[in-house]
Structures are given as C-alpha cells and as structure tokens.
Design a protein that fits this description.
By secondary structure, this protein is an alpha+beta fold. The chain is built from 13 helices and 23 strands. 30% of the residues lie in helices and 27% in strands. The strands form six sheets. Strands 12, 15, 18, 19, 22 and 23 form a six-stranded antiparallel beta sheet that branches. The chain has a five-stranded parallel beta sheet with strand order 3-2-1-4-5, sandwiched between helices. It has a four-stranded antiparallel beta sheet with strand order 6-9-7-8, sandwiched between helices. Helix 6 crosses helix 9 and helix 7 packs antiparallel against helix 8. The mean pLDDT is 95.
C-alpha cells in the first residue's frame, strides 16, 4: 500500500518511522516532511493553505491511506475533504476534532457524559474572568479556548499572574482567535500521564501510557512548552488504572462524540491527572502527542498501518496491541530561549555518531537543510529516543546519545523520567 503522512515535526517523523517498518507499506510520502523524514519517505511541500492540494496529491499518487498528524490540518477539515473524495484517511473530522480545538465544547461534553475532570467556568469577557479568578484560591488554571500549539495553559500561582494571563490571552491576543474564550479551572492535584487510544467511531483500543514533561526546566519548573521529553511505560498507569481510563474516560468520550453525530476516527489523546480519586482529564487532543508519540511508537510491536486501516474502516473491534517490554525515554533537544525567543540556523553535528545504534532513534522536530548543512529551524530541534531494560537504562542511553549531538545554544532537561526513577529506586 501507499501511505501519505501529513505534517513535518517530530511526531510525524515517529509516524513515518513506524509505518516504514510495516510489511503492508510499499511506498511512503510525507508533506511537508523534514530532513530526518527524507531518509524514510518521499517528501514534497505541497502547501497547507487549502485542503485541496493534499487531496489532489493523494489522488494523483494513488495513495491508499492518508495519516494526518498536526491538529491545524484537522481543524482545517483535511479529513472531511479526503473522505468526500473516497480516500481512506486516519484522523477525526473537523467536527470531531473540536474535542481539542474547542476546550469549552470538550468540557461540556465531559460534563454531559460525567467524565471526571476539573471544575470550570468559561468567559468571553476579560473583566468577568478577572473578577472570577479573584474569588479563587491559587494555583489557578487559565486556558485559551482554541489551539495554541500546546502553550495556551497557565498555572497561575497568584491572582496577579492569573489576571496577567487572562489579559495576555484576551486583550493582547497572543494566541489570536484562540483567545475569544478563556476557561478557568480548578487546579488538580496528582501526577500527569498521557493515554492515547485508537478509535474507529465505536471501539477504543488504548496504547500503553506515557508521561510528558511540559515545563521548560529540570524539576518541572519554568514556563510550559510543547513538551521537553517523555517516557513510556508509566507504572502509575497499571492494568487496573488503564481499565478505569478506558471505561470512565475514553469510551464515554467516543460515545458522546457519536451522539453528537460526529463519530471519532483516529487516535484520541487523554491528558490525565492521576490523583487520590483516580484519573481526571486535564485535556483531550485529537492526534498523537508530541513527544509522547516518540516514546510510545518505538515500543509498539503491532503493525501500525494495519491498526490505522482498521480504524478508518471501522474494523477495530478485536484488534490487540503488543508492545516491547523495554522502556523508552525521549529527550527533546531545544534551542536556547525556547519556548520564548530563540535563534535558529545553527549547524547540527554528531548525528553520525548515533545513526547506527539499534537502541537509539533521533526524530527531527525543527531542522532544515541550508547549503547542504543540517541546521536548526525551530524551538524543539531533535527528539532523542532510546530503548532500554527499564527507565533508568533507557534514560542513560538517551542522554549518552544527546551528549554526542552538538549545536550552538542547545538546551535540554536532564531529568526526563525522574518521577519513575524515584518510584523504581524507592
């Protein structure tokens, strides 16, 4: 079969890598792709201004399956147009993707289906939102309602910080139209985990859990980012907890979307807080997490193309997933200054030192070619994933590889997986 992957970040590199290992896939395309993906797939930048170009390309190449990675493409309705043309596609429609693109919609769905989540209020007027947060006890969670590249959430430690966040979102419009509404939530206590699940509109098959590290600096300090690293599996999400997540969260969410007339097909991401009362939803995403995909997909033994086709065709019932026993740790190498201002264009060296290692995979997130040189082109540059016999072994291998890779102003957290290591050593 021929497969087209849409997107050009680390998540899409991980998807292309996993699909390249499928016995079903004979030809891989990616748009726009990146220099790392080019080693595995034919890349072409056909533009994302409209959905038509992607559909036209898929038709012209006789593509059998289109896999859409980033949320922006889902919000633009690429899946809707592909299905109108009879092209098999993996991903939710624009309406179903509202579970990520419209946080107010997602919270109302959770309320209706009694899915455990934080108490919340929504506001379209900054004055009212500011007055409300002053009645709360910090920490206070402030969220932009729409898409904000994973950066639209502030955990305010004071009323002043909460008010500043509201003004930045609603008055200064730092996230554009995503700030038309703000969601004010209670702060949930516990430990975060991410559970992704394949869905065919009716059935749910979960992958093994991962834990992302959102804060920029060691010890979970500093500003929120798109993700500084991840590991899998996560011991707090054991078989019993995973069953609760499926029964109490994922199945009701998929049922709720079907009841809305928008059946969910693709991968559904549940960002969770595991607390004393069990799992609660922090957020839903309508696609693979980044960098969770870079930690989970290298452990997946089941043919990814087969599973994606089963989702698209409504045949997921009876599918079981197998995973390596090894742990995986992904460390994001970023440009200094990320998630704030940063500079790009620095040459990346040392990838040849890790290229032939069977226990390490380097996923490109923000790289480009300039005059034949591989250079940095984004805030998150490389996701360095290693497999090992346990979390500590995987982390040691990942950091060994990270130290072999050099570019000016490179920065990374040095403690990915620290909670899991503390549990293991404790």
């Amino acid at each position: 079969m021929k497969v087209l992957v849409v997107g050009g970040g680390g998540r899409e590199h991980a998807l292309v890598w996993a699909l390249s290992r499928s016995s079903q896939v004979k030809k891989l395309y990616c748009t726009p792709g990146n220099p790392g993906i080019e080693a595995l797939a034919e890349c072409t930048d056909i533009g994302c201004e409209g959905t038509a170009a992607i559909c036209d390309f898929a038709e012209s190449k006789g593509v059998d399956l289109v896999v859409v990675g980033p949320e922006a493409y889902l919000a633009a309705g690429v899946i809707d147009e592909l299905r109108k043309r009879g092209i098999t596609a993996f991903g939710p429609t624009k309406a179903a993707a509202r579970i990520e693109t419209d946080k107010a919609f997602a919270k109302q769905l959770m309320e209706r289906k009694r899915i455990p989540t934080a108490r919340f209020r929504q506001f379209d007027n900054p004055t009212d939102a500011e007055a409300y947060v002053k009645t709360l006890t910090p920490p206070i969670v402030v969220k932009a309602n729409g898409l904000a590249a994973g950066k639209g959430v502030t955990i305010a430690q004071s009323h002043k910080e909460a008010v500043e966040s509201i003004r930045a979102i609603m008055n200064e419009r730092i996230f554009g139209d995503a700030g038309d509404l703000v969601i004010i939530e209670e702060f949930l206590v516990g430990e975060e985990a991410s559970v992704l699940a394949f869905c065919d509109g009716r059935h749910v098959v979960p992958l093994e859990a991962a834990q992302d590290h959102k804060r920029a600096y060691d010890g979970d300090t500093g500003p929120n980012t798109g993700g500084m690293g991840a590991y899998s599996p996560v011991s707090i999400v054991d078989d019993a907890m995973l069953k609760r997540v499926v029964d109490e969260i994922l199945i009701p969410a998929v049922e709720g979307l079907a009841e809305e007339g928008t059946p969910y097909i693709g991968v559904l991401y549940a960002g969770l807080m595991i607390g004393p009362d069990g799992p609660k939803v922090v957020e839903f995403n309508a696609r693979f997490g980044d960098p969770e995909a870079q930690a989970v997909l290298p452990r997946l033994r089941t043919d990814l193309a087969d599973v994606m086709q089963a989702c698209a065709n409504g045949d997921l019932d009876g599918v079981t997933l197998e995973f390596l026993e090894d742990s995986a740790v992904c460390v994001m190498m970023t440009s200094s200054g990320y998630p704030g201002h940063y500079q790009t264009g620095y040459e990346i060296k040392g990838l040849d030192r890790v290229r032939d290692r069977e226990d390490v995979i380097v996923f490109h997130s923000g790289t480009s070619l300039h005059n034949g040189r591989l250079v940095t082109s984004g805030g998150r540059v490389l996701g360095v994933t290693a497999l090992g016999s346990g979390i500590r072994d995987a982390a040691n291998r990942a950091y060994e590889a990270v130290r072999s890779i050099k570019f000016e102003n490179a920065r990374y957290r040095t403690d990915i997986g620290f909670r899991e290591m503390a549990r293991v050593s404790g």
